[in-house]
From TrEMBL:
Protein name (database record): MAM domain-containing glycosylphosphatidylinositol anchor protein 1
CDD domains: MAM
Domain MAM: 5-157
Pfam families the UniProt entry points to: MAM
GO CC annotation, single: membrane
Annotated Gene3D superfamilies: 2.60.120.200
Naturally occurring in which organism (per UniProt): Acanthisitta chloris (rifleman)
Xref: PROSITE patterns: MAM_2
């Protein structure tokens, strides 16, 4: 389609992602520790974060299967993320159709001092693939978390 598919998590999941394995959809008012707002500073709009209350120390978010990218159709995925400064890690992986393993294509760990950041990943794949967002914290304290907001997929995805 001409428009990007955007997951802002306001209503639920978007078409491109499925399965909240360990992620919880919440907003800054949900009394679950930071972050206390989404990446625009809004306390009432929704994002995904690791659910410390459920005792979940890692979480996986998987996209649908995307078609191979071409020279005129590069897949770009833009997203906002928030990582607590102690022990949070967010990884983005690529799983190609013919492979069982997930190839890590981007990773960041908790030196970010509790603020929203933005990143864009460009994917080239000659075969069908899925993209996996994997968040993890080493300690299950309430202020230790990883969050994701506003994932946008370009036309090439």
């Amino acid at each position: 389609g001409s428009s990007c598919d955007k997951c802002d998590f306001e209503t639920n999941l978007c078409k491109a992602v499925h399965g909240l394995n360990g992620w919880i959809r919440r907003n800054g008012q949900s009394d679950m520790g930071p972050p206390y707002s989404d990446h625009n500073g809004n306390e009432s709009t929704y994002f995904l974060s690791l659910s410390s209350e459920m005792g979940s120390s890692s979480a996986t978010l998987r996209t649908n299967v995307f078609l191979p990218t071409g020279e005129e159709h590069v897949c770009q995925i833009r997203f906002h993320y928030w990582i607590s400064h102690m022990s949070g890690t967010l990884m983005v992986g690529l799983q190609k159709h013919s492979e069982d393993t997930v190839t890590n294509i981007w990773q960041v760990s908790g030196e970010l001092q509790n603020q929203w950041k933005e990143n864009t990943i460009t994917i080239n794949s000659t075969e069908k693939y899925e993209v996996i967002f994997w968040g993890m914290v080493e300690t299950q304290r309430q202020d230790e978390t990883v969050a994701i907001d506003d994932i946008t997929f370009s036309e090439g995805c």
